[in-house]
Amino acid sequence: MFTTQYMRTMLAAVMLGLLVLTSGCFSGDVNVTVNNDGSADLKTTLVSAPMLAQIVEQSKASMLAKNPDAQVAPVTKENMSGYEITEHYDSVDKLSDQEFFAAHDGKNTGITVKKSLFYTDYNFDLLFEGSQNGGGAGAFASNITFTYQMTLPSAPSSTNADREEDGGRMLTWNLGKTLVTGESTPIQVSFRIWHTNVIIGALVLVLVLIAVIAFLIWRRRKGSEPDEEPQLLDSSGHRREGGRKSTDRELNMKTSCRMAGDVFCVSRNVRDRQRSKMLSSSTR
Fold first, then answer.
1. Which one of 7, 16, 91, 236 counts the least CB within 10 Å of its CB?
2. Helices and strands (H and E) in the chain: how many
3. Distance spanning both ends of the chain, measured CA to CA
4. Residue 205: HSE in the Cβ half-sphere, 13 Å Cα cutoff
5. CB atoms < 10 A from the CB of 133, how many?
6. Tell me: the pLDDT tens digits for 163-214?
């Protein structure tokens, strides 16, 4: 990407030839779109009056030398012409390969990334440097425009942008003042990208675990319950077990046995059944 050295060269040419210009002489826009997957799209638009066309060509050549895969398209704006250069980066931190996004010792930290399981935090601490001798084009400020814009997946946690739009998702910095006055402009923004796929996967896993645990508990409780003995009704509507009438005493005994789970109680129940059978046989 271009540097402020290119911009200062442009301004020198502007001051030499501006007397013959009646409208704008240079316009630049840098637009970074950060995607939900952590990738980034960079679009740089540079247009100028005919007398500065060579400077724009040099900037384009410099950008293509660093990224031959960049897409270039000619554009026009009023009486100016130039190029729109589009680049894609698989991750935001790859932007640091460009001078515009680089870190400078003791001045700015560039782009820093902190990853965790469910989200990634990004911090942009950029510096668009001016000239210590001043821009030298204060009288021609109306002929120079240059902006840096970021479009984020969500509103940032902090920023020093000159303008915020779309609920804070679209941020704009005016860098023309740096070219005009020579005063450096800091660009700062912090934001977070949530890992939606990881979050959804974690929720599904939790729901599956809950379902499995609930099934195991239900199965264990069911296995601990005694099987119901088959119950038959005789002609008078009384309950019968194994073809005989159940007495109230037996029913009460079975109920208490099931509630108490007493081995002794169970043995008494068996003994009473045998006694009933003997009585039944004797009556026959």
1. 236
2. 6, 14
3. 112
4. 6
5. 8
6. 999 999 999 999 988 877 888 999 999 999 999 888 999 999 999 999 999 9
What are the E-state strand segments in the chain? Answer: 26-34, 40-48, 71-77, 80-89, 110-115, 119-128, 144-151, 158-159, 163-165, 170-174, 185-194, 232-233, 239-241, 244-245
CB-CB contact of 48 with 74 (8 Å): no
Beta bridge partners of 44: 30, 85
**How are beta strands 26-34 and 40-48 bridged, if at all?**
antiparallel
pTM tops 0.85, yes or no = no
Q: For 20, which DSSP code?
A: G
139 class by beta-carbon count within 10 Å (0-12 exposed, 13-18 middle, 19+ buried): exposed
Query: Residues 31, 20: contact at Cβ < 8 Å?
Result: no
Rounded CA gap, 49 and 21, in Å?
Answer: 8
| Total residues found in the chain within this entry | 284
Q: Give the integer Cα–Cα distance in Å for 27 and 47.
A: 5
Residues 245 and 234: beta-carbon distance below 8 Å: yes
